[in-house]
Amino acid sequence: MTELLIKNAVIMTMNEQDDIIEGDVRIREDRIAEIGEHLEPSAGSRVIDAGGKVMLPGFVQTHIHLCQTMFRGRADDLALIDWLRKRIWPMEAAHNEDSVYYSALLGIGELIRSGTTTILDMETVHHTDAAFQAILESGIRAFSGKVMMDHGTEVPPALQEKTDESLSESVRLLEKWHGKGNGKIRYAFCPRFVVSCTEELLVGVRDLAEQYGVKVHTHASENETEIRIVEAERGMRNVVYLDHIGLARPNLILAHSIWLNDEEKRIIKERGVKVTHCPGSNLKLASGVAQVPELLEIGVTVGIGADGAPCNNNLDMFQEMRLTAYIQKVKHGPTVMNARQVLRLATMGGAEVLGMEREIGSIEAGKLADIQLLDLEDFHVYPSYDADWYSRVVYAATRGDVDTVIIGGDIVMQNRIMRTIDKPR
Ligand code: GUN
Ligand code: FE
């Protein structure tokens, strides 16, 4: 049995009691076996001395487009619908198998370097096998699926799908990849957004997701033009429509969800729908200010995601955490979204969005060993042990501080060197 013992870290457990412990973590195979002080290594155990380092659960990002990583710097200064039609869709249409593979690998490299160990990803229409191959090789924990789009205008021919083909290709990918990588890979159906999907497709997704027991990952109510298109075509507000066709269920994950009225917030809460907040993207695409404190107040489960790289030019959860706090403080006042609450969204919140709260999101015995070590030496506070650790991590830490990343007990980055990504195909 392989054992890894990490000694002398400041462990921010993110457990229910909010314990911050100075001590050791024993990992056996892919799980955390024990947390304590002065743990002794077993024979053959590998030991990491994490003295002076801060241990956190790996970040969980619940909305990513790995296939868009290469579009960064080529899609600026437009709002959502024009941005998709003029920039993103033509670039997705030009993808080939190699570019999807390398786009995913590049994105995963950035994600792991900045402490993210689990993602919910949305690919493009074609070449999704290549993205799953990169996910498998990288060792990241990922929910992903091909994007589905069988409707809408100004979509390049290469991205136009027939309803039945979109569904059957999704099922083929699901049957091939769901559960691969020692269970680290899961399939999620990804209808792009209502604007791109026929009702027949969405109903098909609803039934297949139920049949296979998997998540549905989509965008909803990100932009005012988007919700006007949905209202004009379907005669209802976006989330009301999703509920009307029976898609509003606990396995549904909505990215953005900015433009919600009270009825839609109630539907999300009552149906157990999950929401992903994408603050950097919402600012750069001028989409709006999400109602995060309002959703949390009524008991909605919220995670955070960077969205695609061109949405905010970054896949870095440290930036997304800070923005989550800053935006709401300007709107509601300084006590809203404190550092601990924000760090919780970035870890346990994401785990809850994915239904993985028993497996990931905190450092507790029995959970999967998805862990990051931060080296905050550059950041001097005197006396450092009096500093609020949540504040230090949320407001001061950067991705350059991430020293070591462990996913399912495997060390994927140590001393800032990535082991699994930097190899040619
Ligand atoms: N809505 C539909 N497609 C997309 C996308 O690719 N990115 C974002 N941010 N919103 C979308
Ligand atoms: Fe998105």
UniProtKB/TrEMBL annotation:
Its cofactor is Zn(2+). SUPFAM superfamilies: Composite domain of metallo-dependent hydrolases, Metallo-dependent hydrolases. Its EC number is 3.5.4.28, 3.5.4.31. Keywords: Hydrolase, Metal-binding, Zinc. Zn(2+) binds at residues 63, 65, 219, 307. InterPro entries: Amidohydro-rel (IPR006680), Deaminase_MtaD/DadD (IPR023512), Metal-dep_hydrolase_composite (IPR011059), Metal_Hydrolase (IPR032466), MTA/SAH_deaminase (IPR050287). Residues 54-412 form the Amidohydrolase-related domain. Substrate binds at residues 92, 222, 307. Binds 1 zinc ion per subunit. The keyword DNA repair does not apply. It catalyses: S-adenosyl-L-homocysteine + H2O + H(+) = S-inosyl-L-homocysteine + NH4(+); S-methyl-5'-thioadenosine + H2O + H(+) = S-methyl-5'-thioinosine + NH4(+). NCBIfam families: PRK07228.1. Catalyzes the deamination of 5-methylthioadenosine and S-adenosyl-L-homocysteine into 5-methylthioinosine and S-inosyl-L-homocysteine, respectively. Is also able to deaminate adenosine. Belongs to the metallo-dependent hydrolases superfamily. MTA/SAH deaminase family. This is 5-methylthioadenosine/S-adenosylhomocysteine deaminase. The lineage of its organism: Bacteria, Bacillati, Bacillota, Bacilli, Bacillales. The gene is mtaD.
